[in-house]
Amino acid sequence: MESYNGTPHTLTRFDDDLNSLRTLMMNMGGMAEQHFADALAYLLDADAIRGARAISQDYEINRLESSIDELAIQIIARYSPTANDLRTIMSVVKTITDLERIGDKSEKLARIAEEIGPTLRTTDFVSHFRVMGRIVSGMLHDALDAFVRLDAIAAEEIIRRDTHVNQEYNAVHGILLKFMTENPNSAEVSLRMLSCMRAIERIGDHCTNIAEYVIFQQKGHDVRHGELSRDKQRTQI
Amino acid sequence: MESYNGTPHTLTRFDDDLNSLRTLMMNMGGMAEQHFADALAYLLDADAIRGARAISQDYEINRLESSIDELAIQIIARYSPTANDLRTIMSVVKTITDLERIGDKSEKLARIAEEIGPTLRTTDFVSHFRVMGRIVSGMLHDALDAFVRLDAIAAEEIIRRDTHVNQEYNAVHGILLKFMTENPNSAEVSLRMLSCMRAIERIGDHCTNIAEYVIFQQKGHDVRHGELSRDKQRTQI
């Protein structure tokens, strides 16, 4: 076993390996961003090429998740990092679980887009989807950025943005409910629109999780269930 | 730094600490089981006392999640475990994230039960909920049991059970859709029933995750995205 408290040579190798771990996580993050953006482009702008990519892209993200888990274990076993570095590694391991779920939900979004995109784009709902998609894409990008820069202030601001996502979701939920009551034959398509909204809203939750891991490792204590924790009850159920 | 490859005395302390970690995880698992059972009892049998408990219980589960994360970091920092033991510790850290989400969803279930329980219990849907609740409760119990016994065969069987949950969910989804089309004024209550079904179905997904971590640590390789991985596309969206 090597100790990274040892020679400068070993320290460098530890730093290199930890950087590789972060780089792989950021690659996975970039894929998740791309995946989500492709699904939105398919849903909102009928971009079929990006749609096909969103549906087929999940394998690569899943493969990366397994590799990163394995690398994390190897790094810990090889260098016996300190508690602080362990917090970083644990945060990476937890973050990639959220990134994998973002990939899943983007794929789901693209599959629903295939069915209801044409109908959705003729309704007023599409503008709400655009707003929500833009907020959540920004959250994902900024959460990954905050992770790399270890920026707890930015992370806190990202967590606060989730409130807007939930407000938007609740607004659309109300409008869709009214629409369904007035147009009983639209129940199926309405349910699918609701599934889309929920997939986007859930991706926002995963971004909140990632932001919480940033604060966790930066401050060295757990904020996940504290005052800045997202208000889970605010979303319409 | 202590090495658990050292004296038998240190080995015992490492084993003790690892056992404490597992015990805390099982306590959290027991709470999640209780939480889910309480929410189901409120929804299906109007048990208001258990309902109140399900709504108020989340804090304790969240507190345990933070303590277990911290203990995992301390154990790794103190004993520099081998890759195999790290796999176990990582599996605990990942499992508790799923247990925390099961707690969240149980609380959500209890909150919806408060609103729609009386209506639900007058419909035929209630029997479907009972079936699904029973399958998923069994999955949760058996997944925790398989974790403690490191029983990969049992874990594989639990993953297969998720298919039944998805089939049941899809069946109810179809019936509810028909019901909504025929009873437009029931849209709101129907949507809430669907939310209940989805919360139960999602708890099934979390049980599948836990079962996958059992196989991951037992076999020492990752099955999460292999042939036994749950078929995420099977659920109605």
Describe the structure.
- The structure is a homodimer of 237-residue chains.
- Helices cover 83% and strands 0% of the residues of chain A.
- Chain A has 237 residues and is mainly alpha-helical.
- Chain A has a single domain, classed as Methane Monooxygenase Hydroxylase, Chain G, domain 1.
- In chain A, helix 3 runs antiparallel to helix 4.
- The longest helix of chain A is centred in the N-terminal third of the chain and has 38 residues, at 8-45.
- Chain A is elongated and about 65 Å long.
- Chain A starts with 7 loop residues before the first helix and ends in an 18-residue tail after the last helix.
- The model of chain A is unreliable at 227-234 (pLDDT under 50).
- At the A-B interface, helix 3, helix 4, helix 6 and helix 7 of A face helix 3, helix 4, helix 6 and helix 7 of B.
Largest sheet of chain A: none
Structural class by secondary-structure content of chain A: mainly alpha
Q: Any idea of the CATH class of chain A?
A: Mainly Alpha
**Total discrete domains of chain A:** 1
Order of helices and strands of chain A: HHHHHHH
CATH fold descriptor of chain A: Methane Monooxygenase Hydroxylase, Chain G, domain 1
Helical fraction of chain A: over 70%
Name of the CATH architecture of chain A: Up-down Bundle
CATH superfamily of chain A, by name, is Phosphate transport system protein phou homolog 2, domain 2
Mean pLDDT of chain A: 87
End-to-end Cα distance of chain A: 51 Å
| Quaternary class | homodimer
Write down how many β-strands of chain A occur, each being a DSSP E stretch of 2 or more residues: 0
Number of helices, where a helix is a run of at least 4 consecutive DSSP H or I residues of chain A:
7
User: What gross morphology of chain A would you assign?
Assistant: elongated
Alpha carbon gyration radius of chain A: 20 Å
Instruction: Name the pair of protein chains with the most residues at their interface, and give those residue counts.
Output: A-B, 46 and 46 residues
